[in-house]
Amino acid sequence: MKDLIDILRKTRNLKEEEFAALIRGMSDEDGQYLKENAFQVKQAFYGNKVFTRGLIEFTNYCKNDCYYCGIRKSNTNAVRYRLTFEDIMSCCEQGYELGFRTFVLQGGEDLRFTDEDIEKVCLSIKEKYPDCAITLSIGEKSYESYKRYKEAGADRYLLRHETADDEHYSLLHPGSLKLAERKQCLWNLKELGYQVGTGFMVGSPYQTPECIAKDLTFIKELEPAMVGIGPFLPHHDTPFKEFSKGSYELTLRLIAIIRLMIPNGLIPATTALGTIHPKGREEGISWGANVVMPNLSPVRVRKQYELYDNKICTGDEAAECRACLQRRMLTVGHEIVTAKGDFIPHTFETVEGKEDICTM
Ligand code: SAH
Q: Which residue has the higher pLDDT, 88 or 349?
C-alpha cells in the first residue's frame, strides 16, 4: 500500500477503487507511513500552530429526523433549548476575550430562527468583532438564504455531506432528505464565495470502504476549504442505538488521507474523536489535523446538545476548555494560536499539465 500512499502524496488524489483498496488493505505499518507523510505535509503548511474555533451550539430544535442524531425531531426525550440573541453575543464576548477569532454558530434546523434573525446575529458579530470570522452550520437552506447570510457577514459554512453514496444516504436519513439536495447546497455555498466545509461520519451504520471511497472522491471534486470527520457514536434515543461506534484508527487514517488530498486544508480534530478516545484530539493533530473547536455555549445547555452519547466537555466553562486544549496540544508539541485562520488557496506544481504535484 505504500505505493498508493506515495501516489496520493504526489498527485493529491487516487482513483475511487484505489481509495477503497487503500482503506481495506492498510496494515499497521502502512498506517504509520501514512501518518508520517500526512504530518510532514501538515507541518509544511501550518507548522506546530493549531487554529481554534469557538463553537456556539445555539439551538437543539430540529425539523429533521436523521436516524443517527440525538437531536432528531422524533426524539421526544431531548430537552430542547434556544439561545437568545443576547446569549449568543455574550458567548462571543467571552470567546473574544479568550482569544477566539472565529465563531461557529451551529444548530439543528430550527425554523424559529428566521433569515432575519441569522442576519442580525451575523451583522452584530461583525460590527463588534470585525477581526473575527463567522462560520455557520445550520443545515440546508435556499440559495437566497445563503446569499443573505453571506451579505450579512458570514464567511464560512459547515455542511457535512454525511455520505456520498445515494443508497447509503437513504439508509441514514428519512426519504424527505436527498443527497443531491445536500450536494447542491454545497455547490451553492461555494458559488456564493463561502469557505466551505464538508465531511462525514466514519463507521456510520451500513458504511463500506466503497462508500468512503465515494466520500473521498466527492471531497476531491468539491475542493472544500475544510473537512470535518469524526467517528459515528450511537445515541441511546435514536433508531441506531444498537449499532457499534465507528473505528478510532480508521478515523485517524482518514484524517491523514484527507490531509494528503488537501495539503492546505483546515481539518479539525473533532469532539467526536475526543469522545471515542481520551487522547483523540491530540492524536488527530499527529495524523494531520490542524484545528480544534472547543465549546463556547453556556454550560447550562451544553448537555442538551447531545448528538451522541457521552459527549465530552459538557461540564466545563469556555475558559477551562481553551486552557485544557492548550495543554493537550502542548503534549504533542503544538500550540493554539489567536488567529482568524482563513483558508489560504495554494497553487500546486503541475507536470505535463496533468498531475498536481505536492512538493510539500
Ligand atoms: N444541522 C446542522 C448541524 C448538524 S450537527 C447540519 O445539518 O449540518 C453536526 C454534525 O454532527 C453532523 O453533520 C453529523 O455528521 C454529526 N453527528 C450527528 N450525529 C452524530 C452521531 N451520532 N455520531 C457522530 N457524529 C454525529
A: 88
Residue 351 lies in a domain: no
Give a yes or no: residue 346 inside a domain: no
| End-to-end Cα spacing for the chain | 21
Which residue's alpha carbon is nearest to atom 6 within ligand 1? 139
Q: Name the CA dihedral angle for 228, 327, 300, 94, rounded to a multiple of 10 degrees.
A: -90
What are the two backbone dihedrals, phi and then psi, of residue 100, each rounded to the nearest 5 degrees?
A: -80, 135
The helices-and-strands tally (H runs, E runs) of the chain is: 14, 11
Residue 353 lies in a domain: no
| Mean pLDDT across the chain | 96
6-15 tens-digit pLDDT: 999 999 999 9
Range of the domain at 120: 2-339
Does 308 sit in the ligand 1 pocket, CB within 6 Å?
yes
> How does pLDDT run across 266-294, given as a tens digit for each residue?
999 999 999 999 999 999 999 999 999 99
- Pocket of ligand 1 contains residue 201 by CB under 6 Å: yes
Mutational pocket test of ligand 1: of 68, 200, 212, 236, the residue with most ligand atoms within 8 Å of the beta carbon: 68
Which residue reads 463500506 in cell numbers?
A: 208
Mutate to test the pocket of ligand 1, among 73, 160, 309 (most ligand atoms within 8 A of CB): 160
**Contact assessment for residue 203 and residue 254, using Cβ atoms and an 8 Å cutoff:** no
- Number of domains composing the chain: 1
CA 126 to ligand 1 centroid distance, Å: 26
CA atoms within 13 A on the CB side of 311: 22
How many CB atoms are closer than 10 A to CB 316?
A: 16
What separation in angstroms does the CA of 160 have from each of 4, 68, 201, 226, 249? 26, 14, 9, 10, 21
